Amino acid sequence: MFERIKMRGKVTVRILDASGKVKRMKPGFIRKTLKLPGKKMEVVNHNIVTSQGDALLADWISDVPTKTVIDGANGYIAVGTGWTGNSPKSNTSCNTSTGARKIMDAGYPMTKGAFGAADDNVTVYRATFAAGNLNVSGIDEAALMNHITAGDCLAYAQITPEVNVTVNDTLQIEWELTFLGS
Asked: 109 preceded by cis ω (within 30°)?
């Protein structure tokens, strides 16, 4: 018998206004002509589990793990402006980090579904960079990490189109990892 275990991930990036609603871009010519609102400032991208991430997963399910697990006390998301497209599998963080890494929101990580139900194989991580934490143009990369400064990178993602965050905006990143057996 031959079995493969795979992981798939998606990263949702949202820019929120002061009231917590997803902001909208200024409408383009066609939307303006049709009197439609601008598109929501929300993008969904795929990620790659890094080489470090593969090793972390193997370590975490061993009898005596030696690496810090990405949990509510030790899970962080970093953002940056240095996506290159060169060897994302070997990334150990963002290429050009910006701002401080953010710890997981309360209650995260969590499974998306109850055990035995739909989505019980999906782990959801979420971190929120509150207004005032960032004032950056061109955020185009994110990393799921297990430490606030150094540490190991479980997964890495390109953010496209890149997002701009002003001092008045809140950036929320929600990361889903789906474990698939085949």
From this structure: yes
CB 16 within 8 A of CB 170: yes
Structure tokens at 148: 């606030």
The answer, yes or no, to whether residue 129 has pLDDT greater than 90, is yes
> Which tokens hold the place of 138?
């061109």
Q: Is 55 strand, coil or helix?
A: helix
15: Cβ–Cβ under 8 A, 6 or more apart, which residues? 22, 23, 41, 42, 163, 165, 169, 170, 171
Domain boundaries, the chain: 5-181
Pair of tokens at residue 57 = 């997963």
Q: Contact at 8 Å (CB) between 43 and 120?
A: no
Answering whether pTM is above 0.85, one says: yes
Single-letter code of the amino acid located at 172: Q
pLDDT tens for residues 57-101?
899 989 999 999 999 999 999 999 999 988 899 999 999 999 999
Q: How far apart are CA 127 and CA 66, in angstroms?
A: 25
**CA distance linking residue 137 with residue 124, whole number of Å:** 26
Percent residues over pLDDT 90 in the chain: 70
